Structure formats: structure tokens, C-alpha cells
Amino acid sequence: MTPVHIRLLDALQPWLGAPGWCVALSGGLDSTVLLHLLASLAQREALPPLSAIHIHHGLQVEADAWPTHCRELCAALSVPLQVDYVQVAPGASLERAAREARYAAFAARLDTDELLLTAQHRDDQAETLLFRLLRGAGVQGLSAMPVSRALGAGQLVRPLLNCSRDELLAYAREHKLTWIEDPSNADERFSRNYLRRQVLPALLGRWPQASANMARSAAHLSEAAQLLDELAQQDMAAAQGAAEFAWLPLPNLALPTLRDLSESRQRNALRYWLRPLTAMPDSEHWAGWRALRDAAPDAAPIWKLTAGELRRSDERLWWVAGDWLCSPVPVNVTLQGNQQVVLPANGTVRIDGQLPSGNWQLGYRQGGDQLLLPGRGHRDLKRLFNELRVPAFVRDRLPLLRLDNRVMAIANLPGMQGAADGSWQLHWQPPTNDQGLS
Questions:
Q1: Residues 280 and 146 in one domain
Q2: How do beta strands 302-304 and 148-151 pair?
């Protein structure tokens, strides 16, 4: 075996028990070499079943010929190939839109615990580090590309990050491989192409080990990012205690716990918590966090982020996205017992039990609404919500049940959600944040 074979096999040792390995095959030099290396290893090693997937983006006329090239290559290596055709959404960044479409197709392709193997190498890692450095990324961004990460039901793995492009090129020439040259790679209007064609060659001309050194720096930064995540997990442990409203399915944190941390640890903890929910705010946008944190106790501040909003209520932070960003559509539905109703942009409600006869209607609160409580008389809803510390952003969404225009029940609130004898109850399943998850 060649040194490249040995390093590749060593990089893939943790996943030898995976149910399958799938190569992301563009047909270019890097992915062609990766596929050839794996196919040759499979002849002498006990590897998981090997396959390949080619994504056709439909962005270039030349690309129409690439699936045929990939089919011929895979047929010669006896590797099954799947070709997926995707639609790239229009937008400001064609590169980003194409990448999102590509990885969505990859994720859909993977079964549980299967691997998608991509061919990024050490020079790509250096390029990524430099690109993100120029964009002002933090430690997480400067850790560049991880060796592996979750993707769909499986894992994405980059087993060539310890190999240089020159090594892959030498291998391809030695084995007389043919590959596709994507003409878009020569377009220096794209920032990565400019770095690859103009900046990195100049750096390597002066410092021949620049790519290796930058990749090593990325590895150091990856370790630092992992340590910061471990610190964030410790800081989050106390802040993520159970909220008072167990029926409210929204990520939330106790603000006093965060306030006890230094400013930098607050940001680190919040970055960790927000990472799966939204794109990270830039440095200037963190002023929104300070405004939310330091607002008066009776205020209801909002920090708007890319995929949703962070809201504060009664010294607790709530992440809201999806339907929670839309005002619920007014409803005025006549109800009977044992009935479920879908509320536009506001989840569902159901009546458990049989309602007494009468004109029962479902709706939301209005000015001056009151509820008759045993032993307390009629109580204004606003005061009741204040007493129970119901989050402000929830109050106008709580479904109410009226009989002849008098409020008889408030969904989900103990002692107020139905008949005193329990013969009927109003239950609300709030909307989730699903539309806001990234």
C-alpha cells in the first residue's frame, strides 16, 4: 500500500463497522482519487459496502456530461453510483445555495449510521482557515472543517485532511486517472477561487509549509473550540433547569445563572446554546444581548436573530421561531365536547370530556376579560397572568373557552382549564420552533 492508502485507512478506522460508505463524487481530481483509493483498499481489506453519489446542480451546460463520466468511472471500479438532480435556489450567494442543495441531497441519501465520505484535503483546510480568518470568524469558525460531523441519519467524514493536493495529484498521474476540470473553479470572482489561485500560491512560494502549518493551526483551534464547548456545557447545566410551564415546548434558560458569569463566558454559553438554532450574530449584534439582559425587570425585551428571537419574561430567556413569530389568526369556533381544533399558526386545542349544553366558543383574550374563580370571585385575566408569571409572549396565544361570551376556561393553567369537578378540560398543544431550526 502507498503512504496515502495507509493514512486513509488509519483515518477511517473509527468507522470500519459502519453499514456503508458513500463517496461524494463530483468527478474532479480529489473525489476521483478518493474513490480509486477506497476501491483498491476494498480489494485487500474488509471494508463496509462502498457506493458513490453524484449531484447535478444544473448550473453549467458542461455539467450535463459529468454524470456519464462518473458512471464510467464507477463501472470500471465496480462501485454502485446514484445520480441526484437538485434545484439550486436563487439568492445572493450561488456558492452557498448550491452547497445547501447538495448537502440536503446527501443527507436524504444516508441511512442510519452510514458515512458520506468527502475529499477535502489539507490544502482545502488551509484555504478554509484563511477564508474564515478574513471574514473575522471566532474560534469555532477558525477550527475550520472537522474530520466528522452528523449529517442526516449518518455521518459526514473527511478522511483526506492529512493529505496534500500534490499527493493526490501524484497518485492520479501514477494510476493514469482521468477527472473533470470544473470551469467555474477558474472564476476568481468567487472568493475561494481567488484565495486558491492567487493568495495561497504566493504564500507557498514564500513559506512552502504554509498549508501544513495552517492546517495544524486549525487543529489547535478545533481543540480550543472543544474546550470552550465543555465550559459552556458546565455553564448551561444550571441555567437549563426545568421551567415552570412544562407544557411550553420552547428552549429556555434561567437568566440569573447567566448573569453570574463574566461577559465572555455569557457569550460563550449563549453561542453554544444558540448554535443549533440560528446563525451566530456578529460582534456588533451582541449589543442586542446586553440590551435584553439589562432591561428593566418589568420590560419584555426581544433580541432578533437570523432564524428567530430570544425573548425575556420573568427572568427567563425563551427562544421562539417558526409559528411563534406569526400572530395567531383570530378564531371564533363553536365547540362541543371531545373535540380537537387546529389553530392557525398556534398549534391545536382539544376538549377532554363532555361540555354542558350551551353556546361554547373558542377564542383568545380580549380587553376586560375576567374569569370566575371559586372563593375569589371574578378576576381580571391580566392580573391572573401576572400572578402566575405567564410569559408575556404567550398570553395573547392562550386559547380561552367562552360560554355566552363569558370566559369559562383558560387552556393549560391549573385550576382554570375546565370544570372544577374535572368533567371537562381545555388542553392546548402549542406550536413548536421547527420552522426556525437550522
A1: no
A2: unpaired
